[in-house]
Amino acid sequence: MNAAEQLRIGLIGTGRWGSRYLATIGRLWPESEVMVSDTAGRGGPGPPGPVRWPTPAALVASARVDGIIVASPASTHEPVVTGILNRGIPVLVEKPLTADLLGTLRLCSHARRSGAPMLVGHQHLRAPAYQELRRLIRGRAIKEIRCVAGGIGPIRADCNALWDYGPHDLAMVLDLVRAVPMTVQHAECRVRGPGGEEWTADLRAGATAVRLELSNTAEEKTHRLSVTTADGGSLVYDDFAGHRLRVDGVPVEVSDELPLDRQVRQFVALVRGAPGGKDPDELDLAVAIAQVLRDIGDAAVLSSRSRR
């Protein structure tokens, strides 16, 4: 590996997603140096390769890194990422960007002022099957979008099922409808035991009807986005199907590159200052997602009160 390919990456968060990022970097750039820390005060699990730092603050303040990936709990994102932006270090933040709208607004405003590059982990936007779906409906009116996502857990102390599962689906929906304002027509949350939630929401974006069904109590892991066009077309992106894209019921062959691989490659391009590495709409999308999540939550509260 030549010097131009050497990477020094910080990783904050050593849970399920932090471990995936660590494995992805190690597979794509075997000679990279990864510095790891954890918001719970752990240096991080895994093989002896990563360099451990006692706290995220110590890593951010003192480590010589090209960029930092934040995969810690959502409630820690704002203070951790603020410190990274203050140092002008490029950062990739796992979704949700923060745990509420106000935190998202503050963090995006700070990112704009600092000028430091910030990428948000809406990895399904980078999925080859989704990108092909998006290409195929370009210029066609969309009648309906239906998103179904869920699984058994996770149940998080700082992030409900709406904010945990919703960002991925809303990122794709908002990407498809673009600048059309989105309004919530109805939303409901049914509680299924401690921490268990089933969310449904009906939204409107101009002439496009949007339906979200999200659950952390689903028996089978599911993530599917279905699009019906005004001319009768049917396109389905299913992240857990053998063929991730079907058009009018027919499987479409696409690249098998993992969305997370593409996301990390985009971040590395951002770190290296490559053309096209930075998406100017990234911060606007993060804010738009948080606004819709807030509106769905508010609508669900009103729906709950009306049923009493």
Automatic annotation (TrEMBL):
Pfam families: GFO_IDH_MocA. One of its GO terms (molecular function) is nucleotide binding. It comes from the Bacteria. Residues 8-122 form the Gfo/Idh/MocA-like oxidoreductase N-terminal domain. The lineage of its organism: Bacteria, Bacillati, Actinomycetota, Actinomycetes, Streptosporangiales. InterPro entries: Gfo/Idh/MocA-like_OxRdtase_N, Gfo/Idh/MocA_Oxidoreductases, NAD(P)-bd_dom_sf. This is Putative dehydrogenase. PANTHER family: BILIVERDIN REDUCTASE A (PTHR43377), GFO_IDH_MOCA-LIKE OXIDOREDUCTASE N-TERMINAL DOMAIN-CONTAINING PROTEIN (PTHR43377:SF6).
